[in-house]
Structures
1.
Amino acid sequence: MKNKNNLLSPVTIRNHQFISTIGLAGGYVKNFPEGEKLARIDDCGFVEAGSYTIAPRTGNIGTTLVHEKPFTLNAIGLTNNGAEKSIPDLLKLKALYASLGKKLFISSAGMSIDEHPEMAKLFGPIADGFVLNAGCPNVYGKNGQKPIQSYDIDFMHESIRRVGEVLPDTCIFAVKVSPFKPYGFAQSIWPKMYSEFRKEGYTIVLKDSGFETSDELFENVADSIKKCGRVDMIITMNTLPNVQIYADSPKDCLLNFHAADSDVIQNTGGLSGAVVKELALENVRMWNSELWKTDIEICGCGGITNGEDMRRFLDAGASLVQIMSAHLLNNDGSKFGEILADCYSM
Ligand SMILES: Cc1cc2nc3c(=O)[nH]c(=O)nc-3n(C[C@H](O)[C@H](O)[C@H](O)COP(=O)(O)O)c2cc1C
C-alpha cells in the first residue's frame, strides 16, 4: 500500500509540504477573487486553478450545469480567459498561497499535442504543481465524440514526455485522468449507479458506450506515466464522460446546449458527485496496484462528501484527496473542515 494513511504526517512531494490532505479540484477557480476565497478556508490545503486553455473560451451556451444532491452533470466548456491573460492573477494567487503555506496547482486543458507543453512552460515557473488535465475534450463535434485524451495512448505518451522535459525541477507534475473501466463495472458499479438515478426519477445513459476502456489501454497509460520518470502524482478521477440524464417528469434531457465553436446541439456531459464514488474508489485501487512500487503519489477525487468517504480513499491508496461537487453544493467552504474533522475522528 502506497499511502502513509496517516492524516497527522504531512504529505511532502518534491519538497512541497501539504498542510492539509484535502484540497479543491479543478474547474472552480479561474481568477484571483475565486482563488482568494478558497485561500481563506483553513482546512483546504491546496487548490487547483483552471483548467486553462491557450485561447480564451466563453464556454458552452444553454443549460450546461445540473446540480442535484447525489450528482452533478456539467458541460460548462472550460470557460477561462486564456493562459497568457490569466498569468497576472495566478502570480498574485501564488504569492497569497505561499504566505499561507498552501499549495497552488495550475491545470492545463491542452487541445492539441503542443498545448500542454506550451502551458507547462508558462505555468511551471509560477505553480507549486502543474496538472496535465487529460480529461478533455468531453464533447461531440461534427464528426461525433472527440477522443478523450486519457484514452488516447499516443497522445498521453507524447504530451507527458514533452511536459516532463520543460517543467522546472521545483514544480510537481500531476496528470489528471478520466476514469478507466474497472473489473466488474457492468455487474456491480453500473447497476447500483443506474438504480440510484431511478430512485430519484432519472434515467442515466452512457452515449455511444463512451466509456469502453480496456485493461490493456489502462496498463499502457500507466506504463507511459511510469516510464516518463518525471510524473509525481496521478489525480483520479475527472468526470465520467459522455453521460446523458433524462428526467421522468418533466420528460426531458437535463443538458441542452451548443458549443460556441460548433453548431452541434449537445446533451452529454461529465458526471460527478456522490454517485461516482464507487467508480472513483475502484480507480484509485487500480492506480495503486500500478504505482505502489513507485514514488508516484495518488490524489483521489470523485464523489467524496464526508469523512468516511475520505478515509476509504486514503485506505485505497490515495495520499491526498480533492472535492468539487460537495463544495459546489453549499459553496461556503465548510465542507473541507467538516470532511477532514469527520475523517480524523475515525
Ligand atoms: C462544474 C465542473 C467543472 C469542472 N471543470 C473541470 C476543469 O476545468 N478541469 C478539471 O480537471 N476538472 C474539472 N471538473 C472535474 C472535477 O475537478 C472533478 O474531477 C470531478 O468533479 C469529480 O469530483 P467530485 O465528484 O468531487 O465533483 C469539473 C467538475 C465540475 C462539476
2.
Amino acid sequence: MQGTSEKALIKSKARVADHGEVFTPPWLVEKMLDLVKGETERIDSRFLEPACGSGNFLVPILQRKLAAVEAKYGKSDFEKKHYALLALTSLYGIELLADNIAECRALMLGVFAEYLGLEPGDDLYRAGSHVLSLNLIHGDAMSMKDADGGPITVAEWSSLGKGRFNRRDFRLDVLTGMAKFREERSLFSHLGDHEIFQPSGDHPPMTVRDMAALDTETDMEIGE
Ligand SMILES: C[S@@+](CC[C@H](N)C(=O)[O-])C[C@H]1O[C@@H](n2cnc3c(N)ncnc32)[C@H](O)[C@@H]1O
C-alpha cells in the first residue's frame, strides 16, 4: 500500500516559519495510533485531524481500517467494497494549504483504490473521490472557515446497509459547541442532542452510483 514513510519532514524553512509545517515521522505516528489501537481498527470510528497536512495520520488510519475490512469482510466482494467506503467516510481532515490538502486527498484515494483494485472511471472510485472532496477540507481550523470564507461544514455519513449511505451536514462550530455542551452539565442537559443541534443539510439516501455522479474531481483528472 502507498504510504508516507519516505517523505521529508519539512518542505521548506519558509513553510515551517509561516505555517508550522513539520510532519510527524511515520514511526511516531504508529506509536501514537497504537495508543488508540482499538479505535483505529474499528471500521466506522470517526477521526478528525484539524491540521492534517498531507495525511501522515489519516493515511495510516485508513490502512488500519482497511486491514480490519479485509479481516472481517474480505471474502465477500460486495461487503468488502461497502465497508471500505464506510471506512473512508469516517475520516476527516482540515488543512490550510491547498497543495497539502490536494496531496492528502490523492494519497487517501490511492490507498482506497489500490485496496479494491479500482480504476478512475469506476463508480466506487468516483464515490471515494467525492467523499474525500467533502471530508478533507481546505480551510482554517482555528477560525472554522473554509477557503472561500464560509463556515466549515462536515458531512456525517452513516451506512444504511445494502450499499446505501446517509449524509447529514453539520457546521463545525455547532459540532464543537455540542462537545462543550456534553461536557458541561448545562441547564439544557435534559434535552437530547437532536433537540438542540440540527444539521445544516440533510440528504436523501445515496447509493455508490449517486455519490459517483456528484464527483467533480475525477472528471478533471481523467479529462472527461
Ligand atoms: C506541524 S504540521 C503537521 C501535519 C500533520 N498533522 C503531521 O503530523 O504530519 C501542521 C499542518 O497544519 C497546517 N496548518 C497550520 N495552521 C492551520 C490552521 N489554522 N488550520 C488548518 N491547518 C493549519 C499546516 O499547513 C501544516 O500542514
